[in-house]
Backbone:
């Protein structure tokens, strides 16, 4: 994965030099322009800074991204998978409109106005992918993540699952919620390769790296 690291921050090589996506800081070094990847704005940046190490994201990777919003995290993945493709699913028309503007300068992002709980509706628009990324903050997040992995993830692919415990149950301790969701994933044929908490950037969230279990 091509990312630039200092002690405190990470950054990606800007695919569209001279442009910012969400007001992020730009750094010029070694003849390259980097966009600082803000861990308070992107859970993937938080997870990488907190030690996520087994994610295989390279310049040719294909990604199905569920819960793309306006494209903050999608834009950094777009920097990394410069020759690959990101299928960015979002069900809010307002967010998708902003995301579509981003796609005009970043041809490796395909915006899809769809509900991620109904993956069969975009079956004819999305290929089998290397990574299924899920950040939807919904009570049904584990089921929709598994349904999308079943339909779209290559056998040797990886799932990245950002779980927000409060979206599932506010009355149960986050630790218990995370354990329950892991159990559901394992019962349905997946294995947990890595788990990383997102504090201090995001409270009561965990990032799971998931694979198909054989
Ligand atoms: C926490 S935000 C995502 C932030 C984004 N991943 C980022 O890091 O830049 C969750 C997004 O998921 C979207 N969402 C929630 N449920 C969805 C669903 N069933 N299908 C598609 N998008 C959904 C919301 O509209 C919202 O934009």
Residues:
């Amino acid at each position: 994965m091509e990312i630039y690291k200092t002690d405190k921050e990470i950054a990606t090589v800007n695919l569209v030099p001279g442009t910012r996506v969400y007001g992020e800081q730009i750094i010029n070094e070694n003849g390259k322009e980097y966009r600082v990847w803000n861990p308070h704005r992107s859970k993937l940046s938080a997870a990488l800074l907190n030690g996520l190490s087994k994610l295989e994201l390279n310049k040719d990777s294909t990604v199905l991204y569920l819960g793309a919003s306006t494209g903050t995290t999608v834009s950094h993945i777009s920097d990394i998978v410069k020759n690959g493709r990101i299928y960015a699913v979002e069900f809010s028309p307002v967010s998708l409109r902003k995301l579509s503007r981003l796609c005009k300068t970043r041809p490796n992002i395909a915006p899809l106005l769809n509900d991620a709980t109904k993956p069969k509706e975009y079956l004819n628009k999305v290929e089998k992918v290397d990574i299924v990324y899920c950040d939807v903050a919904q009570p049904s997040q584990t089921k929709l993540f598994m349904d999308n992995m079943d339909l779209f993830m290559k056998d040797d692919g990886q799932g990245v699952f950002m779980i927000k415990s409060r979206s599932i149950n506010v009355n149960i301790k986050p630790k218990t919620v995370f354990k329950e969701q892991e159990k559901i994933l394992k019962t349905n044929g997946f294995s947990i390769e890595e788990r990383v908490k997102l504090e201090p950037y995001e409270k009561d969230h965990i990032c799971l790296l998931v694979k198909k279990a054989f």
